[in-house]
Amino acid sequence: MPDALLQKLRTTVGAANVLTGVELSPYVVEGRTPEAAVFPGSIEEVAAVMALASEVGTPVTPWGGGTAASVGMPAGRTGLVIGLRRLARLLDHEPGDLTATVEAGMTVQAFQTALGSRGQWLSLDPADAERATVGGVLATNACGPRRHLYGTARDVLIGVTVVTADGAIVKGGGKVVKNVAGYDLPKLFIGSYGTLGVIVEATVKLRPLPEQEELVSVRFDRLKDAGSAVKAVAASDLIPNAVELLDGAGASGAGLAAGSPTPGAVLVVGFDGVREQVDWQRAELARLTGPLGGRDPRLLDAAAWTRLPTAAREAFSTTAAVMTLVVLPSQVAEIMEQGAGIARGRGLQSAWAAHAGVGVVRGALASEPAPKDPAALAVVLAEWREMARAGGGYANLEWAPLAIKSQIPVWDDPGAAGRIMERIKAQLDPRNILNPGRFVAGI
Amino acid sequence: MSTLTDSRKRDLRRELESILGSGAVLSDPDELMVYESDGLTLFRALADFVVFPTSAQHVSAVVKLANRENLPFVARGAGTGLSGGCLPTEGGIVISMMRMNRVLEIDYENQLAVVEPGLVNLHLSWKVGPRGYYYAPDPSSQQACTIGGNIANNSGGPHTLKYGVTTNHVLGLEVVMPDGEIVWLGGKTREACGYDLAGVFVGSEGTFGIATRIVVRILKKPQAVKTVLAVFDAIDQASAAVSAIIGRGLVPAAMEMIDHLTIQAVEDAFNCGYPRDADAALLIELDGLAVGMDVQAEHIVEACRESGAREVRTAQSEAERQLLWKGRKSAFGAYGRVSPAYMVMDGVIPRTKLPYVLRRVNEIVAASGLRVGNVFHAGDGNLHPNILYDPRKPGEEARVVAAGAEIMKVCAQVGGSISGEHGIGLEKADFMPFIFSAADLALMHRLKSAFNPSGLCNPGKIFPTKKSCGEVGPVAYRPHAIEEKGLAQRF
Question: How far apart are CA B322 and CA A377, in angstroms?
C-alpha cells in the first residue's frame, strides 16, 4: 500500500485508528494479512475511506466482529480492512413503534440487552452474539433456532444505510414497518457478504419479549422417527418458535446427549407466549411424539439456545469442515441419515444438526482421531452437495480450511441467476474492490 | 403512445398472433381502452397491443419481439393497482397475465404452493382452505387482484401486522427477464444461493421482468380467532390505544382504524353495528392458540379502556365477526353514499405519530375545502386518507391532488414513507425525493440497469421524471370498469 494512501487514511480517521504491521494479527484470514485496518468513527469517515480506497483500487473487507471472516473464498488481493467497531451506538429505540435504528458495529448482544431493558428484542439469534455485530449478521444473513417462527434478517430489516464502493452514503427502505417506496435495497444487502457495500446503519422491526419461553428436548432411538415427529409437529396446531433436529453426534455437540444410552436423535422444540400457551404446547408435544418413539421429554436450560447453532461444529474436538445444506423441510431427516452414511462409507465421522422446520441442515466432518486427507474430505462434501441438489436444494461450505476450499467450491452454483448477480455486482462495484472473489459465482 | 405506422402495426399483430394464437392479441383502439388505466383512473395511456400469453415461453417470445422492435412492454394483472404502475405510458405491448391463472402444485408437507401470476389472490386460499391452510397476504382487493400483481407491488393487507407482506411469503419465482431469458430467482427452499434476487424482485413494480411462476408459502389456519371492536369518542384516544396495545407486548393479527365519517358511510350502506356517534373505532383481531387467547383479549380490552374507549365489544359468533369485518373491508365502496368520488392516499408513519399526523391530514384537507375519511391499518401505521370530492366541480380534483402531495410530505417529515402498499408507479414518482436522496435513487437506478438495461420493461415508473408524454397525467375521475362491476374497490 502506498505511503501516501496510509497517510491520507490516518488524516481521515486519526492515526490511532489505523493499524499496520504486527497490529494486524487479529485481521489475518487464512494466512493472509491485510495491508492496513482502519476504524472510522462516523459514517462520513467510512465514506471518505471508501472513496480513498476506490481511487487507488485497493480491495476492502468490511469487518464487524470477525466471527464470519473466514466464510467464503479468501480475497484474491489483500487490501484494507474497514472495521466498524467504533460505529456501535443505538441511535433510536421507540418501543411504541417496535422499531430501532442501530449502527452496524454494535454487537448483537449489546443491542439485545438495550432492547431487553425496555421489554423488546430483535428476533435474530445468531451464534457468537457477544462478538457478532448487527452489520455482520445482516451481511452474512446469520440467524439461529428462533428463525423457525420469526424468520431471518429479511423479515426484520426495514431500512439500511450503506457506503457504496465509490464512497457514497446511500439508504434503502426506511424507518417504518411497512414500506414499498423504491426498490427493496435491504433485501439486496442481506447475505451479500460485503460485496456490494459497507453496511453502516440498520433499522429493524422488533418484537415484545414473550412472557415465557421454554426449550424442550425429546429423545429418539432412531433419526427416522424423530423426522416423523418433526412432520407431526408441522402438521399440528403447535406454534413452536424453534424446531431443531440433531443426530446423536450433533446432540453431543449441543450438550444434549448426556446419559445412556446415547440417543439416536434428539428433537428440540421451543415455545413462547403466555404461561398457559407454553404449558399446553409442552404437553401437546409429548402427546404427539410419544407414539412416534419420543421419550424422556426434558426442559432444557436457557443456555442450550446458544449451543444449538454450533452443535454440529462442536461435536468433535477437531472439525475438518462444516457444510450448510438448504433443502425442503420434508427432506431433512433423510438428508441427515444419507449424509452420515456417505461419510461413514468413506471412513469418516460426521455430526448433524438442523433447523428442521425450515430445511436448513448443518453437517460437520471430524478430523479425528488422525488428520484426514483434504481430497478425501472434499469427495464427501461434494457428495453431500449433490445430495442436496438432487432434492432441489443447494449446499455451501460454511467453514473449511483452505486446503479443502481449494478442492471444492465454497459456494454452490446459483445457476442462471448467477449472471444477474454478476451484473448487479458490476453495477454497484464496477472496480471490484469490495471483498473481491469471496462470494458466489466468483463475485 | 408509440409511433408505429398502420402497416407496421398490422405486421406486428400478425407476428404476435403467430406466437400466441388468434384470440390472444388486441390492437383495436376500442378494445385497448379497457386497459388504459388501473384502479387509479387519474392516469391513462393506450397500448399498441394487449396480449394474453398462456406460458412463460409465450411471454419470452413476446418480450424478445418487443426488444427487437424497441417497443416498451408491461405486465398487467387484474388492473386493481392504485398507482398507475401497469400503464403503457409510452405505448407498446401490455402483457396480460390473466390467462396464466393456474395453481400448479400444492405441497402441504412443505407448506408451499406453486402458482401462475394471474391467479386471483383469494382463490389460492379457497384452494388450500379445505385442508386447513391459507395464503396470508390479504390485500383488500383480494377477491380480484392477482398474485402476480401482489408481487409487483409487494402488497399488504390488514393481517400483515402479524404475518408480514407479500415478500415475506414468496420463496421463489420463474421470471422472464427484460431480454426474454427465463430464469429462476430463489426456489422452493427457504433460502437461495447468492444474493436474495427473489427478495429484490418482489416490489420492483414490474420493472425487473415478468414473473411466470411463483412459489409462495401457505400457512396453517390458526386454531382460534377473536375479534374486538373498541369504540372511542375521540380519535386521539383510538390512536393512543394502538400504542397502548403494542406497549403491553401484544402483536394482534390486525388492528384497523375507522373514523367518524367512514362509520357514517359504512352504517348507511351495510349496518354493521358500528355506533354512528363514535369519533373512531378500532377493529382488533387476535389469532393463534385457543389456550391463552382470553387472557390476551383481556389485555386488549384493558388497554382500550385505559385509553378511553367508551365501549369494547368482542364478536360472539363467526357471523358477528364477519359483519364487523364487512364494515372495514367495504368501507371504500361505502364512500359512494357520502360523496360522488374520492381519492385514496397511501402513506406510512411511525405508529406513535398517529395523533399528530391524523390531525395534520384533517387540517390539510379542510384547508382545501374538502372532506376526508380515514380507514386504515393503524397497527402498522399505514394510513389511507380518502379525500372526498366532486369531479364535476371545476378545480376540485386539482385540490385533491395538491392535498395528497401535502399529506405525503407530512408522512415524510415524521420519518415515514410515501407508500405502504400501493406502490410508486406513475402517481408518486415525483414524490420519491421526499424520502430518497439523489444518491439513493442513483443506486436504485443501477440496480434497475442490472435487470433491465434497455429500460423497455415498464418504463416511466418509480423514478422521478418530468412527464414526457402528453397523454399521461391526471385526468378527470371516472370509475374503472371493474369498479363499476363491483369487482374491486379502492383501498
Answer: 60
Q: Identify which of B249, B288, B432 has the shortest CB distance to residue A182.
A: B432
Q: Are A385 and A412 in contact (CB under 8 A)?
A: yes
- Number of C-beta neighbours around residue A110 at 10 A: 18
Among the four given CATH numbers 3.20.20.70, 3.30.43.10, 2.60.40.10, 3.30.565.10, the one describing domain B6-99+451-474: 3.30.43.10
Q: How far apart are the first and last CA of chain B?
A: 29
Please list every residue in chain A whose beta carbon sits closer than 8 Å to the beta carbon of residue B446: 427-428
Residue extent(s) of CATH 3.30.43.10 domains in chain B: 6-99+451-474
Q: Under a CB-based contact definition with an 8 Å cutoff, are residues B64 and B74 in contact?
A: no
- Flag if B189 and A328 touch (Cβ within 8 Å): yes
Say which CATH class B224-333 falls into.
alpha beta
A175 touches chain B (CB under 8 A): yes
Closest to B388 (Cα-Cα) out of B368, B410, B370, B369: B370
User: Contact B110/A426, CB-based, under 8 Å?
Assistant: no
Report if residue A422 sits inside a domain.
no
Torsion of CA B271, B274, B278, B284, to 10 degrees: -150
**Is B382's CB within 8 Å of A178's CB?**
yes
Per-residue pLDDT tens, chain B, 491 aa: give them. 567 899 999 999 999 999 999 999 999 999 999 999 998 888 999 999 999 999 999 999 999 999 999 999 999 999 999 999 999 999 999 999 999 999 999 999 999 999 999 999 999 999 999 999 999 999 989 999 999 999 999 999 999 999 999 999 999 999 999 999 999 999 999 999 999 999 999 999 999 999 999 999 999 999 999 999 999 999 999 999 999 998 888 999 999 999 999 999 999 998 888 999 999 999 999 999 999 999 999 999 999 999 999 999 999 999 999 999 988 988 888 998 899 999 999 999 999 999 999 999 999 999 999 999 999 999 999 999 999 999 999 999 999 999 999 999 999 999 999 999 999 999 999 999 999 999 999 999 999 999 999 999 999 999 998 544 434 455 555 555 555 555 455 44
CA distance A424 to A187: 13
A124-148 CB burial, b ≥16 within 10 A, e <16: bbbbbbeebbbbbbbbbbbbbbbbb
Residues 6+ apart with CB under 8 A from B440: A170, A171, A172, A182
Q: Which cell goes with B472?
A: 399521461
Residues B441, A182: C-beta atoms closer than 8 Å = yes
- Interface contact flag, B249 A119, Cβ < 8 Å: yes
Distance CA B37, CA B32 (A): 10
Give the pTM.
Answer: 0.96
ipTM value for the complex: 0.97
Nearest C-alpha neighbor of A268 from the set A146, A409, A408, A360:
A146
Nearest to A141 by CA among A212, A68, A84: A68
Q: Is residue A442 within 8 angstroms of chain B, CB to CB?
A: no
What stretch of H or E contains A242? strand A242-247
Chain B residue numbers with beta carbons less than 8 Å from the beta carbon of A210 are: 249
Residue of chain B nearest A230, judged by CA positions: B109
Q: List, in sequence order, every beta strand (DSSP E) within A70-197.
A: 80-83, 90-94, 99-103, 120-121, 157-163, 169-173
Q: Of B183, B251, B382, which is closest to A416 when you measure between CB atoms?
A: B183
Query: How many distinct structural domains can be found in chain A?
Result: 4
Inter-chain CB proximity B446 and A428 less than 8 Å: yes
Q: Say which residues have a Cβ less than 8 Å from residue A227's Cβ, sequence separation at least 6.
A: A245, A265, A332, A333, A334, A336, A356
CB distance B463 to B433 below 8 Å: no
- Contact (CB<8Å) B289/A237: yes
Within 187-206 of B, beta carbons closer than 8 Å to A belong to: 187-197, 199-200, 202-204
Which structural domain, as residue segments, surrounds residue A377? 313-405
